[in-house]
Amino acid sequence: MHFEIIGNINSIQTIAVGKSIRDIARLRKQYGAGRWRKLKGIATVRLFDGTIRKAEVHWYEAHGIGREKLKIKRFMD
Q: Is the pTM of this model over 0.90?
């Protein structure tokens, strides 16, 4: 991961759940079975070079497993 989330993630929305996630087979193989959801939200992030920006982030999440595969989709500022 080339960034760090600072504070909370706001405006969280569910994009996909279960079989509607394209990578569901890989997620289950790599992290285990669970109720996988793909989510998006707005967060303040610190990039590897030290700059702080507001960005839209996407990630996968399952109960008991937590957040996995966070990535920045676009910068909001």
A: no
